[in-house]
Amino acid sequence: GQQLNQSPQSMFIQEGEDVSMNCTSSSIFNTWLWYKQDPGEGPVLLIALYKAGELTSNGRLTAQFGITRKDSFLNISASIPSDVGIYFCAGQLLGSGTYKYIFGTGTRLKVLA
Amino acid sequence: SQTIHQWPATLVQPVGSPLSLECTVEGTSNPNLYWYRQAAGRGLQLLFYSVGIGQISSEVPQNLSASRPQDRQFILSSKKLLLSDSGFYLCAWSHSSYEQYFGPGTRLTVT
Hints:
The complex is a heterodimer.
Chain A: E1 3-7, E2 10-14, E3 19-24, E4 29-37, E5 44-49, E6 55-58, E7 61-65, E8 71-76, E9 85-93, E10 102-104, E11 107-112
Parallel strand pairs in A: 1-10, 2-11
Antiparallel strand pairs in A: 1-3, 3-8, 4-5, 4-9, 6-7, 7-8, 9-10, 9-11
Chain B: E1 3-7, E2 10-13, E3 19-26, E4 32-38, E5 44-52, E6 55-58, E7 64-70, E8 73-78, E9 87-94, E10 100-102, E11 106-110
């Protein structure tokens, strides 16, 4: 199935560092969602974005809906060990007429204490 | 508040056996419902989605099927499992707000 390009694929960072990841597509989206998944569990919704240029925060997490509507970014500030996990972006295609979501390939984050 | 349940949590089944996974949502009405499969270390593959009772859209041709007998119940089935059906199955729901929420998942191992 169709997937979004998500990068980086994985990253190792030191505790306290900031983290950035992004999703890009050649298609235009009307909604962007960011999830975190812990091993053996379902993804948990972190942030939802609905408007081009929108910048939304949830604690140490900040996500932005790209101006072109073709990309989105997630930043984590001052990472802590519990931030470890897989982060997924997901989006709904503009004008798709369906309720389907396309998912990114995931960014695996490991935080070194 | 809304909650989503999946069962069983884990399942080990032999090749050729039938499958039935269940998903139920509480606290909302007329949700859009989804089944995804996630292979180990991989992303999410949309299998089926439903916008109403008896309405099923299939995304990937395979030996799986889905049914929605009630507004908040979504079932994933197979008549004969294949080894390649092993994976982590996730049910999700959404509403007009476009936010999508996932259940805890079912780990299926086909032996």
